[in-house]
Amino acid sequence: MTETTPEAAPEPASPSQPVAPAQSPVEPPERTLQPLLLHSLSELREIWRPLLEAAGIHSVTEIGSESGVTSQLLTEILHAAGGGQLTIVDPQARPISGPDDVTCKAVRGFSPDALKGLADSDAYLLDGDHNYWTITQELGAIALAAKERATFPLLLLNDVSWPAARRDQYYSPGRLPHEGVHPYSYELGAVPGKPSLQPSGFRGEGQFAYALEEGGPRNGVLTGVEDFLADHPELEYFHVAPVFGLGVILDRSAPWADRIRELLAPYAGSPFLARLERNRTELYVRLIEQQDAFGVAAQAVGRARREESVRCDVALSEVSVRELALRDELAGYERALASVRTELAQARLDSARPLPTSGWPQRLRALLRGGRG
Amino acid sequence: MCPLFTDTRLAHVWSIISSDLADGLCLDVFDTLLVRTVPEPVGAFTLLGERLQREGRLPFGMTREVFAKLRVAAEVRAREHSTTSRGTVEARLLEIYRELSVALAHAGTPEELAALEVEVERSVCRADLGVADLIGAVNKLGKPVYLVSDTYFSAAQLRRILERPELQDRTFEGVFTSSDAATNKGAVLYVKPTPSADDPEDVNQQDDVPPPGDGLFGVMLAATSIPAARLVHLGDHPEADLRAARHAGLQAVLYSKLTPHLERVLDREGTAPLTLTDDDRLDREFGDFGLTAVRARVLARSDAAQVPAGLARYWETGATVFGPPLAGFAEWVVERAKAFGVTHISCLLREGDFLSQLITEHAAEAGLTVSTLWVSRQVCALSTVYEGTAAELEAFLSRRRAPTVGQLLEQLGVPVNDVPALSELVDVRLDLPGVAGQALEAIAAEPQVRGTIVVRAARLRERLLRYLDEQLPSSGLALVVDLGWGGTIQTLLSRILQSAGRPLHLVGLYLATNATGLERRLDGVEMEGYLASFGEPSRLFAPLMRSPEMLEQLCMPDYGSLVGFDQHLAPELSPLRMSRTQEAQKAAAQAGVKAFSREWLRYRRSENPIPSLDSDAARERVLRMVSRFVSRPTTEEALAFSAWSHDDNFGSAAVEGLVSDEMLRCLPYLTAVDLEKLSMQELYWPAGVATVVNPTLARIAALSLETGADLADLSPPAAAGPLEFYIDAGGDFVAGPKETVVSRSAADGLSLVRTRIAGEGVRRVRIDPNGRRGMMRIDWIRMSFHLASVVDPVVVEVRELASHPQVAVGGALLVQPSLLEINTDDPQIVYTLDPATQGGLTAGTYAVDIEVAFAFLAIRPEPLLVEHAVAPTSLSRRVVRKAVREIGSRL
In this complex, how many residue pairs, one in chain A and one in chain B, have their CB atoms less than 8 Å apart? Predict the structure, then answer.
């Protein structure tokens, strides 16, 4: 295969052939339909990786590790920076193997409780339970741990766009204090532009629940971030819209702050990216609605088929019962025949037995004698 | 359109309502309107505990089972508190969780936990589809439906649980629960306590007598204008739903969950009652997959009710024991076919006939076609004969019961006269030592005979290949399905196709494969098993492999095995050797399996399907069902199925009864070790027969299977000690062979000792009981003299030692005809062959099987206080008899 160099002039396209979009002839196009809906923080790696590199971090804490892809990326970043410490906080956290100069610590537990007692880090990736109570507690715990630091750690947060921006999402509402939980539903779904949950829409299929209403105080991840920032004027927030949103919190006085601003400039606050994200989520919700509508129709068809199958079942059962009755009757005849044959054979044997030629007279005489006596 | 019901009880309720004998329907909820995917209600607590544990909400060290037990205990406390504080035994879910929250500090508030239990209950429930149809039909008539439930759930919580697609569009006029009403359905039965003037201590005056009232039915009736007599109630509890409903004036129909026999089956399986320990083996997510509910439902079908009485046990066993594994197998085959990307499934005859019927029901939905394929081990074995060598012909010998030389020749198409060397061995079984080798070598040594076989094999192979070309794809992959075990037919078919250059790869999907398949797998034969693969899981699968005949016979069609094809490729079959009675019984069992399969499919295809039986956990659960049947049948099952006979599926005339009279006689004497040692030829279904004849032994053997306990530990040595066996082959016993066998004691002190001893030149047989002081009752001594070149051994049986002219007793006193007082260190029982009549045995015997059945009682060494009933005599029995005759004639 020939690699195209930037200097090489492209071949003029034949008039009859459509011009293919420019792409590398070596690497196949990246598959973006697996999963159908991009949702992981790792999908935004091209944006946040340079930020961590610019901040020269040597320790990072990841809250919520999901598939472990992001954890792997973090070990690479730490290794490139000359080594360091990765702390993973997750109920199912597992230590991952990384380069020798990267220490990996897995803390199994739920944040924010699991953050207590942990050493502070240069950076945090927050991708745990996406609700106001959890995010504010996490930010508070981080702030407490970082109070001795010269600069506040660099924070990266997922799920700061719709749907969790202004609506709490709960993986385990029973774990949160009562005051931290809005009325919620596991079944109803979120629809862009509609504050109340809907019968269809974006939902967790039993895996997580959403607050019934969107907006209002103490509701949603972004609301939690804003309330935290209100008390910390030394911090600056950047919002990158795609893949459910990437939030970046940095210390204005950090030596790497300008570089971070520079790196985020194309993305942060981009109306274009916000439109794309809104379009993406709306299309997905539309797809869910159509799936649900199809499901309802399929249910109706299924019910009709079930009714039909009951009819077939009843008919088959009747035939089966008739067959068994006939077989039973036939078996009875066979047994009766066998019995008759046995009797017949015995009768033949009896008839073929020669009459006793001796013994009887004596026995008769004996009987007669006995009779007389 | 008039609704149809497969359930007799629902049909009855519908007939009441549709004929205007009732104006409304009243329903119990749990186990009536709703079925669960757990065998019992408390199973839902285990699944809730599982979820809490997964979410890290249970305290350290608390398992899901401990949570379930706490949940049960908390309910008891809540009811106690409710009784004292509110005067009702009915507790609310929130009250239960208030009790429980003390033990679950970090699990959540009582409100949250109660809400979570509602969700878990909702997830384990499915609507009973028949009842859902009934409600739909009643709704259409415009008649009201009321729900009346004794439960800790409130009406609102119940409505939440009832929010499910199967019940969409069903409307309920009212929902009444005992927790809301603080009274239950059965309260209507309580007699109002009236003080008795005569007896001031009348028990009715005790404090714990519940208050009188109209109960929950009364609450429901107060909310409707329909008179009680115009309502019909359906529910599963004989007291609450039948007696109480009738007492309240309603018409009532009982919707029992389990039959008494199914309850015993579930108990033996360990399915129910649940113990709330890890023995319950509930799947983390799917509980029991809904199997208990569907098994119970299928027994109430109208076809179950109409099966002729003599066939009912077979139908029921088919439905509840064999139905789940076979329906699961059919489901699995379809899933595997989809995974392999094929569109057609070929089921190997004969069992494939029945299997194809089951699979077709599952396959239609997936767009797969199913057909049967005429093959047999005999046809495939002959078709793989290319040169007629002894090695090739050995394929004819790989069967459970060896054929005779004559049967082998017949299957090879060779007249007996063409192999003179075998003319005297026609009736000899090929498993006798040396016979197989001698026969195969003799056949291979006759060029003309070999030629005949090779030509016949080539013609059969050509027809088989033409047939296979018609039936199977020309290349690629073909799925073949069979009951299974070693994959012999698939292996032979692959060899034939490969030799003929057909680029076709066969993949075998089997109900189960045993360890025989391991070598074949290494040879490239691709096979998979549903219940077991290559004999694993071994502990559960071993009983099934010990007695595979049950499944084999159950799946048989009404025709014999394939022996060849005619020129038009029409199959030529051996005659079927099954009685019409067994045919009818088998057909009933098959009908039961199909009924379960249809019922299962109905729930699988509902709007909210029950879980698939494709998963590993489901497969183990259904394997446990069939394994239980084989290893621990109920008496009813054992009585029904132990009468079945079995043919060896090799086109031969061999038909075996499942149990011989000799074996029936032996069974009370056997220990678990002895039972395990019995060969398949002796007893096809040891557990089944033992269940009827020796239930204690059956229980011990089953216990060993369940626990993995060593059978020897469950079979204690008998007090009699080991027995020694000697053969005098002309040089006295000292020079002859000797065997020592440890005797073991069955549950009631009976013992059976068996051994085989070399017997060339046998003149006398000696049995030495151990020299322990005691009384030994010899029930029989059975000696089987195996002669070379004779099919069956010559059997000599001694029932009475005292009267048998060829038996002499030494070193012990005969105190009754067969009762020995062992009073020396060297007791002996000697059997002497009569040279005049048994000279042939001395000349031809190569081995002797000796069996001694006895009972032994150890006694103290002092002399006996009673007179001997039969005086010891040194005279031979023959002399004594002669003397008796002479005395008789003089008298």
Answer: 105
Q: What is the mean pLDDT of chain B?
A: 86
- List the single range of A337-351, B3-17, B469-483, B654-668 with lowest mean pLDDT: B654-668
If one compares B301 and B415, the residue with the highest pLDDT of the two is B301
Which amino acid is residue B489, in one-letter code? I
d(CA A348, CA B126): 66
Q: Which residues pair with A106 in a beta bridge?
A: A88
**Position of tokens 């076979």?**
B326
User: pLDDT value at position A282?
Assistant: 93
What is the distance between the alpha carbons of residues B482 and B529, in angstroms, rounded to a whole number? 10
| β B655-657/B807-810 pair status | unpaired
Angle at B413 between CA B408 and CA B415, to 5 degrees: 85
Q: Which of B801, B803, B785, B781 is nearest to B793 (CA)?
A: B785
Averaged confidence pLDDT in chain A: 84
More confident residue, B665 or B147: B147
What percentage of chain B exceeds 90 in pLDDT? 47
Arithmetic mean of pLDDT, A264-289: 93
In sequence order, the β-bridge partners of residue A60 are: A86, A123
Q: Answer yes or no: do B55 and A91 touch at CB < 8 A.
A: yes
Minimum mean pLDDT range among B41-45, B256-260, B275-279, B538-542: B275-279
Query: Which is nearest to A142 in space by CA: A60, A220, A72, A85?
Result: A60
- Give CA–CA dist B568/B467, Å, rounded: 10
Measure the N-to-C terminal CA separation of chain B; round to a whole number of Å.
Answer: 95
pTM of the model: 0.75
Q: Which residues of A touch B307 (CB under 8 A)?
A: 321, 324
Q: Using a CB–CB cutoff of 8 Å, tell me whether A205 touches chain B.
A: no
Contact B108 A175 (CB under 8 A): yes
* Contact check, Cβ <8 Å, B302/A314: yes
| Contact between B584 and A310 using a beta-carbon 8 Å cutoff | no
**Closest-CA distance of chain A to residue B49, Å:** 14
Whether the pLDDT of residue B466 is over 80: the answer is yes
- Residue of A107, A170, A303 to mutate for B, most B C-beta atoms under 10 A: A303
Task: Find the closest chain A residue to B4 by CA distance.
Answer: A311
Least confident of A275-284, B4-13, B180-189, B228-237: B180-189
User: How confident is residue B656, by pLDDT bands cut at 50, 70 and 90?
Assistant: very low
Of A290, A276, A295, residue with least CA distance to A38: A276
ipTM comes to 0.79
As a whole number of angstroms, the distance between CA B483 and CA B616 comes to 19
Q: Which of A313, A323, A327 sits opposite B6 (nearest CB)?
A: A313
Rounded Cα–Cα distance for residues A336 and B133 (Å):
45
- For B459-499, give the DSSP string: HHHHHHHHHHHHHS-SSEEEEEEEEEES-HHHHHHHHHHHH
Peptide bond into B537 cis (omega under 30): yes
DSSP B543-560: HHHHSTHHHHHHT--SS-
B113: nearest CB among A91, A174, A314 = A174
Reply yes or no on whether the pLDDT at A360 is more than 50.
yes
Residue B158 has pLDDT above 90, yes or no: yes
Measured CA to CA in angstroms, residue B421 lies from B445, B452, B530 at distances of 10, 17, 46
Per-residue pLDDT at B888: 58
The DSSP result for A236-262, as a single string, is: EEEEE-STT-EEEEEETTSTTHHHHHH
* C-alpha–C-alpha distance, residues A227 and A217, integer Å: 10
Select the more confidently predicted residue: A366 or B94.
B94
Q: Cβ of B602 and A333 within 8 Å?
A: no
Place of tokens 């415009």: B142
